[in-house]
Design goal:
seven-stranded mixed sheet; alpha/beta; 350 residues; 15% strand; Rossmann fold; 30% helix; DNA Methylase, Chain A, domain 2; 2 domains
């Protein structure tokens, strides 16, 4: 960077550190991660040279952020507020109704305007684009003299091995900033998880406790054995089809109880990605759903990324939530590269 200056960042709503880890890979120094979930402390601190603050971002003071920045000349405030009210998995009526999580986006906006970091980035689900709260945020940034750009980024274009679309915004006080197009080679399920040891449903790898697959009932095991990669429950014998799917109202929901395809990207990882019946999360070949480790690797976390302390109990609900809600590391790196190149081009503000 110009004058040897490094971007110093605070990551709000940091989760297990996906965005942080990607930013660090780009050369950004993430001093602090903030999240209300205590389960995020271990992975955030264990895998990144960052401190963790268990706190509600809504109650965070501008001075808390300024203290973390210290005397850094180039600062970045990053955040991904919870996206449940805007998610495509939420009912459209609920997306249009007022929601408590919207206040977290407003809290992020207030911190940006109070602290005035050199750089800002946020990512969220694409439906947020249509919400007034996002339009207000963009207007506030422009009124505060930030140049900015935003667009929906398809994970496949940056080499992410899943079909995941995210709204990305970057803003700067240094000058015009642009989110470039990316054309990384397509990454597939095979590229990502094929080398992991085989598992049966309900078992785990003794060398990696996170490589654990949820158990299956006898009925779901039979369904799994009749499932084809890329197929649906419509491939099963009639006696295995759930009553709710057999009804006309259920016939339009084919995207559950499916196997992934080896040579295609995975579906979007969700908080229930470890369950065969929760989406197309069946292993392409083995008779089980993907393991927690496989889900994390599809989210582009390194194979050795530690999510729990050694000897801790594997809780599928908790770890599924942490992994499914994480910002993919590759997306963090993509954003970090944009910001690093921008600072190289524009230098520090006077």
């Amino acid at each position: 960077m110009i004058s040897g200056e490094q971007i110093v960042a605070v990551d709000l709503f940091c989760g297990v550190g996906g965005l942080t880890h990607g930013l660090i890979k780009s050369g950004v120094s993430v001093r602090l991660g903030v999240d209300l979930d205590p389960a995020c402390r271990f992975p955030m601190e264990e895998n990144n040279e960052s401190k963790f603050l268990e706190a509600d971002v809504g109650s965070l003071l501008p001075s808390d952020v300024q203290t973390a920045f210290g005397d850094a000349q180039i600062t970045l405030l990053a955040g991904c507020a919870p996206c449940q009210p805007f998610s495509s998995y939420a009912h459209s009526a609920k997306r249009d109704a007022p929601h408590g999580d919207w206040e977290l986006l407003r809290s992020f906006s207030k911190l940006v305007l109070a602290v005035r970091p050199t750089l800002v980035t946020m990512e969220n689900v694409p439906p947020l684009l249509k919400q007034q709260i996002f339009k207000d945020f963009v207007a506030d940034l422009r009124d505060a003299d930030y140049d900015l750009d935003f667009r929906v980024v398809d994970g496949r274009e940056i080499g992410l091995p899943q079909r995941r679309q995210r709204l990305v915004l970057v803003a700067s006080l240094l000058g015009p900033i642009v989110i470039p197009d990316a054309e990384s080679p397509l990454s597939t399920v095979r590229d990502t998880i094929a080398t992991l040891p085989p598992l049966s449903a309900g078992s785990s790898d003794p060398d990696d406790p996170l490589h654990a697959a949820a158990s299956l009932s006898e009925l779901n095991l039979a369904r799994m054995r009749h499932s084809k990669p890329g197929g649906t429950w419509r491939d099963w014998p009639r006696e295995l089809v759930s009553a709710c799917h057999a009804r006309p109202t259920g016939s339009t929901y084919p995207s559950v109880y499916g196997r992934m395809e080896w040579d295609a990207p995975a579906p979007t990882m969700t908080t229930q990605c470890y369950g065969f019946g929760n989406g197309r999360f069946g292993h392409p070949e083995q008779d089980r759903a993907i393991s927690l480790r496989e889900a994390a690797m599809i989210q582009s976390f390194p194979k050795d990324y530690a999510f729990i302390p050694p000897g801790a109990t594997i809780n599928f609900n908790t770890l599924g939530r942490l992994i499914g809600n994480a910002v993919p590391v590759l997306l963090g790196e993509f954003i970090g590269d944009i910001l690093v190149e921008h600072v190289r081009a524009h230098g520090s503000r006077s």
